[in-house]
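Troubleshooting entry. Yesterday's outputs looked truncated, so today I'm pasting the complete records for two proteins to confirm everything comes through intact. If either block looks cut off, that's the bug. Protein one:
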Amino acid sequence: MAEETARITVRLPLEYLQKLEQIQKKNNEKNLSEVIRRALDDYIQKQLPPENITMVTLALPKSLALKLEAMISEGMDAVSIEEAIRNAIRDYLEKKLKEIATVKSQ
């Protein structure tokens, strides 16, 4: 069953259009509508996450992202950069919480 859609008209600065076209070419999208739909989907997910989730945007140096991708492809215990970062933050917080608990118990 096809998803119901609606048509809208949007005016964008030419600079935005050029950047969207770059993204379209980079990702081999069939048209700009696909790029815009994907961008809107990402925006909606970030603005309206489930109640038990807090969304965080993180900018990584490209060299670090490439190292993470290499580690993942070599069998690191993660399937994506996002998962690797979540795991690293979770492990770090667990370690710090144990340290705090140890200091408080002394």
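Protein two, checking that the full record survives here as well:
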Amino acid sequence: MNYFMLLSADLRNIMARLGVRTVDDLIGRTDLLEQRKAVEHWKGKGVDLAPLLVQPDVENAVLHQTEPQDHGLEKALDNVLIKKAAAAIESGTPVSGSFEIGNHNRTVGAMLSNRIARKYGDDGLPDGTIEFNFTGSVGQSFGAFLAPGVTFNVSGDANDHLGKGLSGGRITLVPPAGSTFVPEETIITGNVALYGATGGEMFVRGVAGERFCVRNSGANAVVEGVGDHGCEYMTGGVAVIIGKTGRNFAAGMSGGEAYVLDEDGEFYVRCNKERVDLDPVEAGSEDEETLIRLINDHRNYTGSPVAENIIANWDEFRSKFVKIMPRDYKRILEERRLNEETGDRVLVPNG
């Protein structure tokens, strides 16, 4: 609050010097802008911004919003989902349903999750309270901010931002019935899946695009391959990739854990090792337990033959998995473990 009070006071001072009374009066005043002279950087040198600063030669031109924008929320699929889930939202009674969907249906689940969060807060509903099945090509940000207790199962494919901000719900994605392509060799969902997710689970029977799990801070996910920049800026959660990755994996990763099935032995050159270590998965370790549990869940939720084969031949596949973990994150966890064992009250980052 103090920051915004100081920010608004600073803005008032600047506006007063410019002779402007309100923010609305400030919007669009390109005549108050000047291009910086003598720009030496090679990207900016010689750029002429004058055409962008021209004031419109229109009498009484309105330069700020004066009419409300119609977002068409009354047409959103979530209205149907909320009605279908009414008993679950009101009393926790389990509900289920099936729906056809198209890529014009965007951010499906966000309004439903809002209703749940209003009543139950971050805890949401018990697992399995709401289970909805979708058939078709889902639009951008499907399952955004999906609340605990909600499961979305998709038979089809997905656009970008699948599971954006996932907040405790579960999303499964499998190829449509009758498809002839090989899922583990085919991209089935777009870029930046699980962007900024804070909790929940996602299981994808197929390959995801670029920046899978970017800025993920708490969700667990299993996918059968990813594009470039996988787990970029990830801060928490667990990502399991039972297939190939693109280049620059783990760039900027500062927390969480990733496990990659490195069958060709070339993952080392595709990983950004600036901040992370690549470790084996030891027999009998917690890492092995985590991997088996998540891959089992992937098999159960998606029917994946890839997961089935890995579990059936675990002794062979375990040695092919690589654990990716940020060095600083690993050090902090080890310090916390030692502190708990000794009872020392040594402060560690984020402790």
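Both blocks look complete. Sanity check on protein two: Residues 87 and 93 are 6 Å apart (CA to CA).
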